[in-house]
């Protein structure tokens, strides 16, 4: 998009007309209401500035994350507005003037509207730039869940569950087998003990001397 003539004029004047007076009469931009910290997506965002002794209206510009300046609107002292592209209206913005206050409204705040907003006033043929008002979505600190890790964990859990469901009687069968083995070994040990006792008695009986 070609740069707006109004924006080029403002930037040219800003570079050529710096003075100590402009630094003394620094302006401030604030949200309406003032206690708002960060705008939410889709909300109606209002900002206002009150330049001192402005004799030719005020302009609003936005600086995006990459540092590029975007002209939004010029508001005359008679509340006449000129938007980017030399348009009288804008689908995204509203602007108005009341007394010494100049208000900018973002009708539907979106991601592309994020940035730092400045109010510029021409006072005694000197441009005065306001302090910037940052307008960004709130920063979330919640750590995002990794889809791959979640899927892998789900697959492992599902696999373990299905494996257990396919062999529900494995543990009972193992316990029964161990019990049978113990009974068999006890019986074998008892039989061996009886056999050993019988052999011992037989040997002792055979070694006993016979009577004359």
What does this structure look like?
InterPro entries: CD8_asu (IPR015468), Ig-like_dom (IPR007110), Ig-like_dom_sf (IPR036179), Ig-like_fold (IPR013783), Ig_V-set (IPR013106). It comes from Gallus gallus. The protein has 212 residues and is of the alpha+beta class. The protein folds into two domains: 5-135, Immunoglobulins (Immunoglobulin-like, Sandwich); 170-206. It has four helices and ten strands, in the order H-H-E-E-E-E-E-E-E-E-E-E-H-H. It has helices at 5-16, 20-24, 147-166, 170-207; strands at residues 29-31, 45-49, 58-63, 69-75, 81-83, 93-98, 101-106, 115-123, 126-129, 133-135. Strands 3, 4, 5, 8, 9 and 10 form a six-stranded antiparallel β-sheet that branches. Strands 1-2-7-6 form a four-stranded antiparallel β-sheet, with no helix packed on it. Strand 3 (58-63) and strand 4 form a beta hairpin. The chain is rod-shaped, with a radius of gyration of 45 Å. The N and C termini lie far apart (140 Å). The model is unreliable at 11-25 and 159-166 (pLDDT under 50).
- Helix and strand element order: HHEEEEEEEEEEHH
Shape descriptor reads rod-shaped
Q: Would you tell me the structural class of the helices and strands? A: alpha+beta
> What's the CATH first level of the largest domain?
Mainly Beta
CATH superfamily of the largest domain: Immunoglobulins
Task: Note the gap between the termini.
Answer: 140 Å
Largest sheet: 6 strands, antiparallel
Q: Regions with pLDDT < 50 over 5+ consecutive residues?
A: 11-25, 159-166
Q: What is the tally of beta strands?
A: 10
Amount of helix: 25-40%
What is the CATH topology descriptor of the largest domain?
A: Immunoglobulin-like
Q: How many domains make up the coordinates? A: 2
Average pLDDT works out at 75
- The fraction of residues in strands falls at 15-25%
CATH architecture of the largest domain: Sandwich
**What does the radius of gyration come to?**
45 Å
């Amino acid at each position: 998009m070609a740069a707006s003539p109004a924006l080029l004029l403002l930037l040219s004047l800003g570079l050529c007309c710096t003075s100590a007076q402009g630094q003394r009469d620094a302006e401030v931009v604030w949200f309406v209401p003032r206690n708002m910290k960060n705008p939410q997506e889709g909300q109606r965002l209002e900002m206002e500035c009150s330049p001192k002794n402005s004799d030719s209206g005020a302009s609003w510009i936005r600086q995006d994350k990459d540092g590029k300046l975007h002209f939004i609107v010029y508001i005359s002292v008679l509340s006449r507005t000129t938007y980017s592209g030399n348009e009288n209206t804008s689908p995204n913005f509203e602007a108005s003037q009341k007394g010494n206050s100049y208000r900018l409204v973002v009708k539907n705040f979106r991601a592309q509207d994020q940035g730092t907003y400045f109010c510029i006033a021409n006072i005694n043929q000197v441009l005065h730039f306001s302090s910037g008002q940052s307008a960004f979505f709130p920063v979330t600190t919640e750590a995002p869940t990794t889809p791959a890790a979640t899927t892998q964990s789900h697959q492992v859990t599902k696999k373990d569950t299905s494996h257990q469901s396919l062999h529900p009687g494995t543990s009972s069968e193992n316990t029964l087998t161990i019990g049978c083995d113990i009974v068999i070994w006890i019986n074998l040990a008892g039989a061996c003990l009886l056999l050993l006792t019988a052999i011992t008695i037989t040997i002792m009986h055979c070694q006993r001397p016979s009577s004359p």
